[in-house]
Amino acid sequence: xxxxxxxxxxxxxxxxxxxxxxxxxxxxxxxxxxxxxxxxxxxxxxxxxxxxxxxxxxxxxxxxxxxxxxxxxxxxxxxxxxxxxxxxxxxxxxxxxxxxxxxxxxxxxxxxxxxxxxxxxxxxxxxxxxxxxxxxxxxxxxxxxxxxxxxxxxxxxxxxxxxxxxxxxxxxxxxxxxxxxxxxxxxxxxxxxxxxxxxxxxxxxxxxxxxxxxxxxxxxxxxxxxxxxxxxxxxxxxxxxxxxxxxxxxxxxxxxxxxxxxxxxxxxxxxxxxxxxxxxxxxxxxx
Length: 287
Known about the structure:
Low-confidence stretches: 1-9
Structural class: alpha/beta
CATH class of the largest domain: Alpha Beta
Distance between the termini: 30 Å
CATH topology of the largest domain: Cytidine Deaminase, domain 2
Number of helices: 10
Oligomer: single chain
Strand content: 15-25%
Number of domains: 2
Order of helices and strands: EHEHEHEHHHEEHEEHEEHEEHE
CATH superfamily of the largest domain: LpxI C-terminal catalytic domain
Largest sheet: 6 strands, mixed
């Protein structure tokens, strides 16, 4: 895709067809390496970038990489300030990347008036409904909220075996995928650990790492970690991520195989993950 006089050196399957690379992207950044990698990719594409950082969540290194006039740091509950910042930045697009600690959303949250009005209107209060309501507010400004996989296509899980020798029986793989998708459908979590047709653990509010540690308390030879998405996943603010930390927890728990939904799971720092997985004898498979 190109425009007269505009050089766009990088394309992404997850950008809208009418994406204009001269309009600034505001990166709403949580914690971890995910927003850092996304920022690097957006800059490499030559797209103007601004930062909305979360207090005590966003990497200080990422914050300091932006000029003062191109960044704002706020608390999770300051939705009104975030919307005002998007307008001040003249942002054409926004992109959410990186997690916010669940307790920040549900315990000790100090909402501003806009956030309070959003929360009051919600019949169900979970991460999906909260971020979904915020997404509506962003779009009403005329700012397009991008798919959170945009710009980082190379960091996605791909079909087939990505690393090692995947030896899990097809029947047991299918069982694991079925369980993971049912858990996702019920909005409980997005992953599970199975072994030879038995469910060892499912992911819930505690998150992936604690689930893997629980699974590691059982017999783990031929155990399989499966990561998937909901059928109606909103990729603007909810993308499953598999990174070095998760791989390390798998290794500590004695889990030797993972199956990740291809094109829908981000493998952060993919090359490093594949190299480390190989060193630890962990096989990674995309389905």
